[in-house]
Specification:
By secondary structure, this protein is an alpha+beta fold. The chain has 3 helices and 10 strands. It has 2 domains: about 35 residues; about 140 residues, PH-domain like (Roll), CATH 2.30.29. Pfam families: bPH_11.
Length: about 190
Amino acid sequence: MLRLLLSLAALVVFALLVWGGFRGWRHRAERQEAVTGAFPDAPADPGPVLHGPTTGLYVGSTIAGDWQDRVTVGDVGSRAAGALTLHEGGVLVARDGASDIWLPLTAVQGIRTDQKLAGKVTLKGGLLVLRWAVGGAVVDTGFRGDGIDDYPGWLTAVGSRLTTGTPTVDDTVTVDDTVNPKDEKEQQA
């Protein structure tokens, strides 16, 4: 009888932990949605392809400046295989088994390679990260390509639409060609 009671108590504790995690994830999404609003829908016709597609893994999106603060609005927090394509009006992240993410080019503030985002850590320069504005927030969206050989092409293709310089791998390219001081500290460490 004691064994049965202990087993039930362990099951109840486990169920409470799962419920608490789910509730925290849902409340986080509600708080973030108040700041970001709904993410833009991809247009039916995004226009001609300017670069890509690059296949790989959508790593996630985080609030800019905090590589672990994953955005959980809708299904944006879900990792998924997919393809990254630059169109005339923006960048399309077509995800398998999840909704597509559209980053309007007018909202994109920068592009860089990085080694960490949304709890994913890779070798230096293993992630392609786009910084963009959505609602009242600035978000970093990360994509890990099947190969990093195409990253310089992405930096050039997107970077040339944001600023006059041509970026290189491991550069941060932004609209005003500045780097977030917090990012500089992390790069020096």
